[in-house]
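Figure 6 in text form: structure in, sequence out.
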């Protein structure tokens, strides 16, 4: 007798899908419970209150991201000096803005303003002109808006043994896409200058 009828196959796959989904839910619940506490900087104290939790993450990322430079000023002074390139001081052009927008990756998470890169990529000529005007105004004023500089940092577990250690997580930053476009213009200019 062959039990592999269409009905039993469908029932088997439905049951398997349900078991896999339930198992994932149980694993997720366990991971969330494990992540509800984190070790303090002394590596012994377990922190469970949200305010302690947030302070510990802020402390961790400050220590990781705000490292002092290992390059001495004397070493920088010994670098050969080159003539000033006045083209680097020109306001961003429409073509530079379009090039920078095309170089931004699609499918990445947006920053605090929640505008994804696809809006810029498919916004058309009018959006490119308006964005260029904004970037030129920033350039003339010599000021970058705080929204372009702010980042939201969140942590991702590295799948290491102890989930409670901050070092077993890596930080990931969400940046404002318009700010990324501006920095891409600067990067392109510097790269073109070095070639």
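Output sequence:
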């Amino acid at each position: 007798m062959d039990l592999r009828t269409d009905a039993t196959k469908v029932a088997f796959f439905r049951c398997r899908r349900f078991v896999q989904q339930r198992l994932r839910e149980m694993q997720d619940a366990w991971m969330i419970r494990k992540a509800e506490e984190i070790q303090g900087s002394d590596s012994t104290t377990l922190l469970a209150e949200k305010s302690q939790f947030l302070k510990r993450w802020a402390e961790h990322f400050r220590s990781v991201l705000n490292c002092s430079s290992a390059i001495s000023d004397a070493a920088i002074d010994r670098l050969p000096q080159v003539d000033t390139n006045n083209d680097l001081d020109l306001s961003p052009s429409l073509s530079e803005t379009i090039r920078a927008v095309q170089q931004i990756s699609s499918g990445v998470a947006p920053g605090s303003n929640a505008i994804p890169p696809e809006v810029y990529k498919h916004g058309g000529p009018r959006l490119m002109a308006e964005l260029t005007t904004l970037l030129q105004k920033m350039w003339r004023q010599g000021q970058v808006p705080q929204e372009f500089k702010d980042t939201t940092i969140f942590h991702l577990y590295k799948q290491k043994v102890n989930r409670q250690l901050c070092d077993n997580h890596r930080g990931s930053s969400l940046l404002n896409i318009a700010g990324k476009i501006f920095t891409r213009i600067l990067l392109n200019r510097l790269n073109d200058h070095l070639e």
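Caption detail: Residues 40 and 52 are 9 Å apart (CA to CA).
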